[in-house]
Amino acid sequence: MASFVPHWKSITLIFLLSTVLVLVLSPLRTAATIDFVQPRAALKIDNFHAREYTAKDPRVALTFTQVAPNEVQAIVPATQQQPRAIEFSIDALPQGLKRRLLAVFVDNARILDARDSGGNRNFGVIVPDSAPLTSGSVIRILTIPDDKSTPPPLTVNDVALTAITAYRWSKDTSMALFPGVSGGWWVLSTTMMPTHPDNKPFESGIRVGADLLPSIPTGGGTFRAYHYLLAPSSDIRGDINVEFNSETWGNNAADARTLGVAVARVGITPTEIRSGIQDAPLRLISIPVLVFLVMCAAIALQMPHRALGSVVAVGLTLPMLYERVYLGMWYPHLVILFVISIVTVPLWFRLLDWLTDDCPLPIQTKRLLVGLVLVTIWVKGGGILYPIMRPIDISWHMDKVREIAMTWDFAKFYQPGAFSESVMPITEWGEDRPMIPYSPFIHFASLVFLVFPWSLEVSATIFNTFLDASRIILIAVIARQSGLSVRVAWLAALLYAVTPVTFLLHAWGNVPTTTGLWWMLIATVALLVAGRNLGNRRVFVAVVLISTAAMLSYTVAAVFHMLFVTILAGLLWVVPNTSNKPTSGRILAATYGGLLIATIIYYGLYIPPIIERTIPYFLQLSTQSTESIGVVRAPFDEYIANFFPALRYDFVQNPYLYYGLYIPVLMVIPAYILMWKHRTLWTFAAAWYVVAIIFLMAGYKISMVDKQLYYIVPLLMLSWAMIADRLWNRGPMGRIIVSTTILFTLWSALQLWIIRIDRAPLVLP
User: Fold this and answer.
1) Which residues does 258 contact at the CB level (< 8 Å), separation at least 6?
2) Residue 261: φ, ψ to 5°
C-alpha cells in the first residue's frame, strides 16, 4: 500500500470529481417505462407470470402458400406499426408422431420455437421490435427436424395478423423495478385489468416504498390506465419499486396458476426534470467506487492514473443522461467484477515471472500485459454483466448443471447416451448419429458456481472471461519461450485482446468449447516451456496431469491435442533443431499417459459404441457423400468459399458474425518462413497448422463450427506480430501501419461487441 500514499491527493481529487458529477447529473430525471409487449420488460419485473396477450381489432387474415411439405409462407400487406401478433392454426399431429417442432420466421428473424404435442391446434406469437412487420415482409411457418432428418409435414389452416394488448398476470405480490432513477416527485402510470376470470370482487393495491397507494377498484373486464402522484418518500435510496399486491384466483381446474391483476404497462414520469441533490440514487455511488478502483489499478501498474480516472469518471456518468434503469442495475455488478480482477493482479505478475523465468520480460512490459488483462476482463466481463446481455448457449449448459445439482444423477451425464447425442443435431449428423463422447466434466466443475449469490450463467461467463484474459499472458509466453522479441510478445498479446472473434466466443456462451480451447493452449504451452525438462519426474507428472485435464475438459480438445502431439513428435524427430528442443519420446509418453488416464476415467466407457457406430459412420463418410447419411451440404468449393467472408471486419457479407482475422491470416505464410530461425516454434507451428487444415477439410463432412479456426488464433496472433515487428523497425510509416491495424481491429471488435449485446436473445419466462 506504500505506493498509493504519494498519490492520495490525486486519488481524492478524481474521486471527488466523480462524486460531484454523480450528484450534479443524477438529479436530472427522465421518464421510464416497462411495456410488457417488449421482451426485455422481463428484466425489470419480479414474480410475474409469463407474458400473454389479448387480441383486438384490426385482425387481418393473410393469404398463404404451401412452398414445401413442411412450410407455408405469407406476405404481410401494408400495415400500421403497432403491437401485433401472428396467429395460425395447424392440422392434427400426423399418426405415428409424438410431437412436431415448429418455428416461425419474419423474414430472417426467428421469433418462435414451439412444440406440437397433439393438443391445442391454435398458436399465437407476439412479433418483437427486432423483427418489424413491414409491407412485404415474409412470414414463414414450418416444421424443423427432430428425431428424423426429414422434417414432418405441416398443413396450416389459416394465418392472421392481429393487434394486441400484451400483459402479464401478477401473483399475490409482484414487483416492477426502476433502479437508480433518483428521488423527488413522480407520476406513476399503470395500465392494468383488475378483474379475475370469475368476475368476483377482490382486494388489490399498489405499494411504492413505504407508501400504500389508493386501492384499485376491481371489475370491468377491460384494461384501464391508473395514475398516482408519488411523494419523495416513495423511493428507497433512489430506487422506485412498484409492488402489486392482490388477492388471487386460480390453483383450480380452470387454471393451475394463481392470478392477481393483469398488468400491461408501468411507467414513471418526473413532475420536474430536476430533483434535489439529496435525492441522488445510492446505486450510482458505484461510479466513484469504480473510479477509485481504476486509479488504484493504474497506480499499481505505474500508468497515468489521473487521466484514466478522469476518463472513467466522465465515461460512466454521461450515459446517465440517456439511460438510468439498466445502469442502475449494471454499475453495482461492475464493482464486484473490478474488485475481483484487481485482487488477481499479483497472481498475473507471479504467473509471468514463473513462465518466463529463463527469458525474462522487462517490468514495463509485464505491467502492460497485466493492464491489458484487466482491461480485457473489464470490457468483456462488463459487457456480459450488462443487464440485456444473454450469451446464446450458456443457459442450456447451466440448465444441465442445475439438473445435476437437483438430482445428483452423475451417471446420466457420464455414461453414453442422451447427453452426448443432445449436442449432435440430426440436421448436421444424420439420423444414424455416431457415438461421440461429450465430456461432462465442465458441467461437473460448474457445480462450484452454486456458492455464489448470482446466477450460474453470470458466474460461468465471468469465469470464462478470466480464462480468456489469461490467454494474453500465454501468447506472450509462447513468443518469449520461442526466442521472439519482447515487442513481438506484446504485439501478439495486444492483437489477441482486440480481435473480434475473441468477443464473439463470449457472445455465444459455449463454455465447454472455450474452456476446452483454453486447456489445449495450456497443454501446448506446457510442452513448449517444460518439454525439454521432461526428464525431471515432477515436470513429467505435471505435463501428464495437464494433458489429462485438457482431454477430459472437451472431447474435441482430446482429438486435436492427440493429433497435434503425434505430428509434433514426428517433426521434432526429423527437423534439425537446437539442443534444447523437447524430445519426441518424452512428449509422446507424457501426452499418451494423459490419454491413458482420461480413458480409464471416462473415454473407456465409449470404446464399444465407438467400434459399433462411430468407426463405420466415418468410414462411410470417407468413401461417400454426406447425402448417404441424410445430410445435404454445399459443394466443396462453395464450402471453402463460404469460409472466407467470416474473416472480415464487418457484417456486410454475414449479418450475424465476423471474426476479424483477415489481416493475421494474410501474414501466415511470410511469418512461417521467418519462424525457421526459431526452429522449435517453426515445428510447433507446423503441427498446429496441419491439425487446423485436417479439420478444415473434415469440416466439409462433419460439423466443426469453425473450431479449427479458433484453435489456431494464438498462432495467427504470433504470425501477425512477427511481421508487425519488422514493420515497426522500418520507421514512422511502419509504425503507423501497425498502430492503424490495432486501432481498426479494436474498433471492429467494439462494434461487434456492442451490436451483439444489443441483439442478445432473451428467453422469456
Assistant:
1) 171, 172, 248, 249, 250, 251
2) -120, 155
CA distance 219 to 259: 14
d(CA 568, CA 675): 15
To the nearest 10 degrees (0 to 180), the angle between helices 345-355 and 456-481 is: 30
Q: What separation in angstroms does the CA of 244 have from each of 13, 268, 329?
A: 44, 15, 21
Strands (E), 29-154: 32-35, 45-62, 64-68, 71-75, 84-90, 100-106, 109-116, 122-126, 138-144
* Bridge partners for 262 per DSSP: 169, 193
**One-letter amino acid for residue 635 of the chain:** P
The answer to whether residues 524 and 564 touch, using CB atoms and an 8 Å cutoff, is yes
DSSP string of 447-486, one letter each residue: GGGGGSSS-HHHHHHHHHHHHHHHHHHHHHHHHHHTT--H
The DSSP secondary structure of 221-275, one letter per residue, reads SS-EEEEEEEPGGGSBTTBEEEEEEE--EESSSS-SSEE--EEEEEEEEESSSB-
Q: Parse the chain into domains and list their residue ranges.
A: 1-26+280-343, 394-758
CA 337 to mean position of chain CA atoms: 16
Cell digits for 490? Answer: 506484446
Q: 552-568: per-residue pLDDT in tens?
A: 998 888 999 999 999 99
Q: Cα separation of 103 and 181, whole Å?
A: 39
Residue 332 C-alpha from the chain's centroid:
20
Give the integer Cα–Cα distance in Å for 480 and 678.
Answer: 11
Average the pLDDT over 614-640 and give the result: 80
The grid coordinates of residue 656 equal 450475424
Quote the cell numbers at residue 495: 492483437
Helix (H, G, I), strand (E, B) or coil at 133: coil
Burial (CB < 10 A; 0-12, 13-18, 19+), residue 145, is: middle
Q: Which has the closest alpha carbon to 213: 229, 232, 192?
A: 229
- Note whether 438 and 420 are within 8 A (CB): yes
Rounded (10°) angle between helices 305-317 and 8-25: 10
Is residue 309 within 8 Å of 7, Cβ to Cβ?
no
- Are the C-beta atoms of residues 193 and 246 closer than 8 Å to each other? no
**DSSP character at residue 61:** E
DSSP 378: I
The closest of 190, 746, 666, 684 to 495, measured between CA atoms, is 746
Indicate the SS3 state at residue 144. strand
Q: Is 410 helix (H, G, I), strand (E, B) or coil?
A: helix
Query: What's the whole-model pTM score?
Result: 0.88
In the structure, what pLDDT confidence band is assigned to residue 764 with cuts at 50, 70 and 90? low
How confident is the model over 497-507, as pLDDT tens digits? 999 999 988 88
Q: Contact 728/676 with Cβ under 8 angstroms?
A: no
CA–CA dist 216, 195 (Å, integer): 10
Q: What is the mean pLDDT of the chain?
A: 87
